[in-house]
Amino acid sequence: MGKTSLHSALDQTLKKWGNCVEKKSCYICGKKNLSKNEIGLTKKLLDKDSKRFYCIDCLAEYLEVDTEFLLAKVEEFKEQGCKLF
Ligand SMILES: [Zn+2]
Predict the structure, then answer these.
(1) Within-domain flag for 3
(2) What domain range is 34 assigned to?
(3) Distance 68 CA to ligand 1 centre (A)
(4) 10-residue block means of pLDDT along the chain (85 residues)?
(5) Domain count, the chain
(6) 5, 41, 65, 74 — which has fewest CB within 10 A?
(7) Cα separation, 73 vs 61, whole angstroms
(8) Does the residue 78 lie in any domain?
(9) Quick check: is 50 in a domain?
């Protein structure tokens, strides 16, 4: 494999990654770079195909619970081996 083709293969991989780890921001407050937990919670508690994501504060407000409750849920889901977390 020549240097050029190796380089373009790497380029392709990076592009794919870029799509995969697309940065999500909060639908309500616009907080950027939501964590995997926040995205996982949105998917798990609202809709797994959700196009709207919430940060933990807005999610807590939306669900009328406190953030501690949501953080406890994250741990619970992790223990269950949920792939989203
Ligand atoms: Zn928010």
Answers:
(1) no
(2) 24-85
(3) 16
(4) 68 61 87 94 92 96 96 94 85
(5) 1
(6) 5
(7) 15
(8) yes
(9) yes
> On the CB side of 20, how many CA atoms lie within 13 Å of its CA?
6
- Residue 71 CA to ligand 1 centre (angstroms): 15
**In angstroms, what is the span from residue 29 Cα to ligand 1's centroid?**
4
Q: What's the 4 CA to ligand 1 centre distance in angstroms?
A: 44
In this structure, which amino acid lies at residue 64?
Answer: E
Contact 39, 24 (CB under 8 A): yes
Cα(27) to ligand 1 centroid in Å equals 7
Which tokens go with 1?
A: 């494999």
What DSSP state is assigned to residue 24?
P
Choose among 23, 22, 82, 34: nearest CA to 58: 34
- Asked whether residue 11 is domain-assigned, the answer is no
Q: What is the DSSP letter of 22?
A: P
Q: Is the pTM of this model over 0.90?
A: no
